[in-house]
Amino acid sequence: MLRYFRINDPYRLLSLLILLVVAGLPLLLRLPGITLQELHHMVLGEVMGDKILYVEIIDRTPPLMAVMDGFLDLLFGRSLVARHLLALMFIFFQAAYFAILLINNKAYNESTYVPALIFGLLSFVSFDMMAMSQELIASTLILLSLNNLFKEIEFRIDRDSIVLNLGVFIGLASLFVFSYSIFLLGAVLILIVFARTTLRKILLTFFGYALVHGILFTIYYCYGKTDDLWTHFYLANFSRPPIVYVSWGSLFFLGILPIAYLVFSFFMLTREARFTKYQSQLSQVMFLWLLIAIVQIIFTAERTPHSFFTCIPSLAYYFSHYLLLIRRKWIAESMLWILLIGLLSINYLSARNSLSKVDFRSFFPKPSAQAEKIKDKKVMVLGNDLPLYQQNSLGGSFLDWDLSRNYFEQSEYYENIIWINKSFQKNPPDVIVDTQNLMGPILEKIPNLKNQYRKEGELYWKLPVTSN
């Protein structure tokens, strides 16, 4: 297989696509189930069509990802298989683009599509890599920014548009995953160290990033809602403590094979590599890029296996070097097959909870206590019972409870009462789940709303409209 992808033939990419589909087929045929993140994005996508994010939907999801959620809902509804197939196409594009990027920039002594193969294999570290996550889409933009970084370091194309586009791509990525803003600082650091870039170009990079966010602010300024944007997106994402879906121990076990190959790669590069000056710079850039990606993961809002998408380009770069430098071809082929079989085995076994070292229990929705009573309804949950939305849709405007709770817990403020009343008028829920008895004082202050609901224990049911 290594010899096959080593040949510089673009048609090898078609074989890579077939290989990715075959590798992903067991997961497509027997899905582990919907994750909490996927459920959240599906619920958000269902209400994105006619509502303004952060204004009529209280949630901290970055804006471009929310738009993508709406687009995916329009195309696929809640179909997991269709979304995973689309994610597979994203992975294929990234793998192919990365290999072409390295060929164009003469990263190796030979033009080869081995990096595309390794990139595709590393995307199967865990089953959730094959999901339409915000990290998958954002990492695609980060890959485009990496191409601009290489161009600037190479000095062959000296245009201001390169560093401007670098900032724009990172800015767009931050509107999918806000913590990807860290790559802006990392890119500037790399430009200073390796490209000896001028102050003007550094400012252009920051300007490209700021331009994207400036356009976003302008859109909300036209609605007069910049306060909501600042509070529910920027402050909410900046101050949010990380949500741990998968422990560091489980992540380490999933990544033990790539970590071992990374050690082998560094050892081989130290002994055997014969770099040109430019190739040596690229190697150092990829190492710094890996460190920046790890720093970003530390600050990410939600820690999952697919949080490591931005590490894959650097790992694929070094693994490819390692395999290409092995002189005995049968050893190189064996190491490739060990990587392939090892990654897929850990992936399939962990997806079926067959590995005690990998715990995905916090990754999936737990059964809701109200699930038997409420089905196919528009629901407003005053709490963190996201699993209830598996068989229901969102009623009202409050999806992210951590951001929404102040509206209900501080009902003495007149502005909060007005806001809650407006949300009921625009998207009235059929059922209100109130386990903390927060709705009672609010309904006392909105008599018209009180007459529309009947309380039964912790639930408020909407009364049918009677005609006069």
In which order are the strands of the major sheet placed?
Answer: 4-3-5-7-6
What fraction, in percent, of the residue positions are helical? 55-70%
For the largest beta-sheet, the strand count, sense and barrel status come to: 5 strands, mixed
Form type: globular
Structural write-up:
With 468 residues, this protein is mostly helical. It folds into two domains: 2-351, no CATH class; 378-462, no CATH class. The protein is 61% helix and 4% strand. The protein contains 20 helices and seven strands. It has helices at residues 2-6, 12-29, 36-46, 63-76, 80-104, 114-122, 134-154, 160-174, 182-195, 199-223, 226-239, 248-254, 256-272, 277-298, 312-325, 329-351, 401-409, 414-426, 439-445, 447-450; strands at residues 243-244, 302-303, 378-381, 393-394, 431-433, 453-456, 459-462. Strands 4-3-5-7-6 form a five-stranded mixed β-sheet. Helix 2 packs antiparallel against helix 5 (80-104), helix 3 packs across helix 4 and helix 14 (277-298) crosses helix 15 (312-325). The protein is globular. The chain starts with a helix and ends in a 6-residue tail after the last strand.
Q: What is the secondary structure topology, with strand pairs?
A:
Layout: H1 2-6, H2 12-29, H3 36-46, H4 63-76, H5 80-104, H6 114-122, H7 134-154, H8 160-174, H9 182-195, H10 199-223, H11 226-239, E1 243-244, H12 248-254, H13 256-272, H14 277-298, E2 302-303, H15 312-325, H16 329-351, E3 378-381, E4 393-394, H17 401-409, H18 414-426, E5 431-433, H19 439-445, H20 447-450, E6 453-456, E7 459-462
Parallel strand pairs: 1-2, 3-4, 3-5
Antiparallel strand pairs: 5-7, 6-7
Helix pairs in contact: 2-5, 3-4, 5-6, 5-7, 6-15, 7-8, 7-9, 8-10, 9-10, 9-14, 13-15, 14-15
